């Protein structure tokens, strides 16, 4: 009589492997901090393999072959043009202040497109004029097609590109 593989007790080594996979996915920006902590707790509490598998099932595969495959997929997407995200309208806030834009849950304006960095750009009000500055994002920030090097003013009608996410500034 053989045991059901899903009912087999999880070893310490399997838990460590799952925790490493979670850490790597969080480091690459595939998991938010909250999701990472939630799943890490699930890995620590897992008693059976099915519980452990549920915590890491949707993560990309580990190992050199899987990483090479993901690298080729990334090259293919960059070479043949990744899809542009849908254009969104950006209404500038009525109150002056600082507004963080990015993929992170702590951002004031959260965008979910993969090409947007966790902390991508900052909107600030300077003397009644809204300015945008790139926060060293991976895919850059552009205003009307020009890549930002310094703080740049925003006006109604401008097109703001954060990676492949396009925002049209409206009054």
Write a structural description.
By secondary structure, the chain is α+β, with helices and mostly antiparallel strands. It has helices at residues 12-27, 33-45, 49-56, 64-79; strands spanning 88-91, 98-102, 109-110, 121-126, 129-134, 141-143, 146-147, 152-153, 159-162, 165-170. The strands form two sheets. Strands 1-10-9-6-7 form a five-stranded mixed β-sheet, with no helix packed on it. A five-stranded mixed β-sheet has the order 3-2-4-5-8, with no helix packed on it. Helix 1 (12-27) runs antiparallel to helix 2 and helix 1 runs parallel beside helix 3. The model has no long low-confidence stretch (mean pLDDT 82).
What distinguishing features does this structure have?
171 residues; alpha+beta; Tumour Suppressor Smad4; 2 domains; five-stranded mixed sheet; 4 helices; 10 strands
Q: What's the CATH class of the largest domain, please?
A: Mainly Beta
| CATH fold assignment of the largest domain | Tumour Suppressor Smad4
Rounded mean pLDDT is 82
- Which descriptor suits the 3D outline? elongated
How many helices? The count is 4
Strand order of the largest sheet: 1-10-9-6-7
Oligomer: single chain
CATH architecture assignment name of the largest domain: Sandwich
**Uncertain regions: pLDDT < 50 for 5+ in a row?**
none
**Straight-line N-to-C gap:** 71 Å
Largest sheet: 5 strands, mixed
The share of residues in helices is 25-40%
Q: Could you give the count of β-strands?
A: 10
**What's the structural domain tally?**
2
Domain FHA: 99-148
Protein name: FHA domain-containing protein
Organism: Phytohabitans flavus
Pfam families: DUF1707, FHA
